[in-house]
Design goal:
Elements: H1 23-34, H2 41-59, E1 64-74, E2 85-86, E3 93-104, E4 110-120, E5 123-126, H3 142-151, E6 158-162, H4 169-177, E7 181-185, E8 191-194, E9 197-200, H5 201-210, E10 215-222, E11 225-238, E12 242-247, E13 254-259, E14 264-274, E15 280-288, H6 296-305, H7 307-316, H8 331-340, H9 342-353, H10 357-370, H11 385-402, H12 407-417
Length: 431
Amino acid sequence: MAHLSNSQRLAAGFHPPPSLVRPFAAVQAAWRFYSNNRVTLPELSAPLIECARADLDATCEDWLLVAFDWCNIHFCSHEHRKDRVPLAHTKDLGYELLTALAVGDREGCPVAPLCLDLRASDGVHSTRSDSPLTPVSSLDALEPLMAYVHGLNMGKPAAFIIDREGDSVGHYRHWAAAGRKFLVRANDRPRVMYEGQHRPLSQVADVLRKRGAFRAARPVLLKGKPAEQFVAETAVVLTRPARMQRVDPKTGKAKHKDISGPPLPLRLVVSEVRNPRGKVLARWLLLSNLPASVKCETLALWYYWRWQIESYHKLLKGAGQHVESWLQETAVTLSRRLAVAPMACLVVWRLARDDSLPALEMREVLVRLSGRQMKRGKKTRSFTEPALLAGLSVLIPMLDYLRDHDLNHLRRLADAALPGLVYPGATLEDG
């Protein structure tokens, strides 16, 4: 309930409801809870997984989409945190968060975080384990998460969606050998075997366009302007050796090693967003081993839905929870709070995809209470998830306060203590 309050940079701590007689005691209790070593991350994440199971039938038809992404949590000025690790550079200190977010394949709605890994100097604090795990490279960390999601037995096959950081031949082979189904955005330069020749992926995409292989998929909006998405598909084979890079712990220098492997046939899906004049505004090169029953238009749409995990990290950082202002002093206590905070996101996501009349009216109320301005237009939404969270931060304390206080008395008090401020130009007797 406390995390449903939209945090501020200067007040990102526990938000006790107004009905508490001793709010400071509640703050101390929350602090002790997150510092209690008997509270384990798997226990705290269990409600998230159960919520995902409960929402699976309503959000997923054939596949459970699982988006992976990394998010740096910066604590450069927090000198009291002794377990920080370097992020972008040696002076950029904090923790690295890896999230596996479940997304529905019907409308691309976020469902729930299935797992989170927080890397610190003492190890990786994960909702998969009671104790810290040994850190590995960013891409090597994905297979254990895939295996963990597979072991949850969610009832739908999982399709893992990864951005360009996941473009790695060695990991493609490893994931395919383990039976994982993936959709990864590839880089332009790597070469593949296409029609008996080794060609860069960008050149293969150009060949498809010259042959007129693209077909219209759907109208889209790019930066608020109307555009149209076109897709094309072909088969390619990865034959090049994987280039493994590891840092020598003795010298601190990176070592490279080429590792050959069997040819790996994949589907190449090229997605282009064009303006009404036919100019290409954006292009994605997507590699996947998903079956042909999943159309290329669907794969392009699934990758577009991957932005939901970016929005989730935005809710955690700048548009809701302000995690970089939390005062937990260690990675383990921070990870425990990170396992609780997503429950507030689940409440917002459920309200956002509810089509009932009460939910529609409640979204209008929350947007109005949030004070946020929404973009106008037929194709724009009348709300955003950060606005709903901000509105809840006003509504919940208000309803909680009114349980024990009379509304008319509160109006008289406001009119007496703040005359003309709450009701400009009118008195309470005027209605």
